[in-house]
Amino acid sequence: MNNIFEVLFTEEILKRIDNLSANSKPSWGKMDVAQMLAHCSSFQDIAMGYSMPPRGWLGLLVGRFAKTMFYNDKPLPHNMSTIPTILITDKKDFEIERERLKEKITTFQKNGPEACTSHPHPFFGKLSSEQWGHGIYKHLDHHLKQFRV
């Protein structure tokens, strides 16, 4: 299982981000490429402990039963609902968002598992650093596949 804390997988993700362009079109979903990059940056903020959205009632009820979907080998479903605070709908600058996301991924990887948040995921609840590492890779992979890179 790929883990963003491993340099090889971080480098792969960064190269794929570099293969995006401002004109990249999604295979599914409503976000354009700049919004997707901003969304992924906002998700990085959660994993890094910079943002701590509250747990919703649905997550409190079923999140712990569904959390393996965040870090197992199965792809995430297309058009899956997202954390409301990181749903990006306003216009974003592609180049700024791409560089911002790359910086956050690099920082997250370099800081290592010990710097990962201990705050619960807004839907899935408590995650170990290893689960966050797998989940971050999986989330980024999901959105990069959305834009065919």
From TrEMBL:
Xref: InterPro entries: DinB/YfiT-like, DUF1569
Q: Pfam families annotated for this entry?
A: DUF1569
Protein name stated in the entry? DUF1569 domain-containing protein
Organism expressing this protein natively: Peribacillus castrilensis
Read off the lineage from the record: Bacteria, Bacillati, Bacillota, Bacilli, Bacillales
